[in-house]
Automatic annotation (TrEMBL):
Protein name: EDD domain protein, DegV family
InterPro entries reported in the protein's UniProt record: DegV, DegV_C, DegV_domain_contain
Species assigned in the record: Clostridium fallax
Gene3D superfamilies on file: 3.30.1180.10, 3.40.50.10170
Keywords carried by this UniProt record: Lipid-binding
GO molecular function, one term: lipid binding
């Protein structure tokens, strides 16, 4: 049985105690407020970041993990006899995937597999959880790679946003879409599609947002042996009804809070579901 180390980045948005329990290495992206830099989840929490945004009236920049940081990680685990499976956030959202690939060339090892998840936040998270399960079942790194690549198109998400300010300021959504979202209590339901954030639906009010997210979840159908993640950041209006729905239907789920890097772009008041669908 191969010794396999799973490595991911801090946009994974799965509770750290779960990742530590399953021996996953999480490399942090950088959060930059002007000249001040913080390691995501190490030097700064999501709440501290949001407080700082309010205090300074300034949205920080987020920076990819550099190749040298991946090289240090690779060298450490290769010396310990591991094969390394790396799962990163979408290459369309960050240069982190490219850094992981450059580092692989630098260390010149065939015992490293790098996968572009084409996702972010808990979409990346459900793939990492799947990789953990496959590793613990004793599959080889190549077998795990094959199954993860086959699963990527089936990762589904629907997130309701109360405020789109951060998404617009950070350039993740156009100002035109933002204006629509701010008029008459419109809630945008966003998804990760083709590696990028995209508008899925426009609904009026939080109740309709909840209804839309649940309908999407039921229509797509989740694979019962895969993780469902309830992701949230300071949003009770959507969070509480979704939690009640999952529990009333005996659907096992992981309760996860948005991390710093993703929180920079999402802002507060967002909540939704991530899962692997049946079709």
């Amino acid at each position: 049985m191969e010794k396999i180390k799973i490595v991911t980045d801090s946009t994974v948005d799965i509770p750290m105690e779960i990742l530590k329990k399953h021996d996953v290495e999480v490399l942090p992206l950088l959060i930059n407020f002007g000249e001040e830099s913080y390691l995501d989840g190490v030097d700064i929490t999501t709440k501290e970041m949001l407080d700082k945004v309010q205090e300074l009236d300034m949205l920080p920049n987020t920076a990819q993990i550099i190749p040298n940081r991946f090289c240090e990680c690779y060298d450490k685990y290769l010396k310990e006899g591991y094969k390394i499976l790396v799962l990163t956030l979408s290459s369309k959202m960050s240069g982190t995937y490219q850094s992981a690939c450059i580092a692989k060339k630098m260390v010149e090892s065939e015992d490293i597999v790098v996968i572009d998840s084409q996702n972010v936040t808990s979409g990346l998270g459900v793939l990492v959880l799947k990789a953990i399960k496959l590793r613990d079942e004793g599959l080889s790194i190549k077998e795990i790679e094959k199954q993860i690549l086959e699963s990527i198109p089936y990762v589904k998400s629907a997130l309701g946003f109360e405020s789109l300010e951060h998404l617009i300021r950070g350039g993740r959504l156009s100002k035109t879409v933002g204006v629509i979202g701010s008029v008459l209590g419109i809630r945008l339901i966003l998804e990760v599609k083709d590696g990028q954030m995209a508008v899925k639906e426009k609904v009026r009010g939080s109740k309709k947002a909840v209804k839309e997210i649940i309908e999407n979840f039921e229509k797509m159908g989740h694979k019962e042996d895969e993780a469902v993640v309830l992701l949230h950041i300071e949003n009770k209006d959507i969070y509480e009804p979704l939690k009640e729905y999952l529990e009333n239907n005996n659907i096992k789920y992981i309760d996860a809070e948005v991390g710093c890097t993703v929180g920079v772009h999402s802002g507060p008041k967002a909540c939704g579901l991530f899962f692997i669908s049946n079709h």
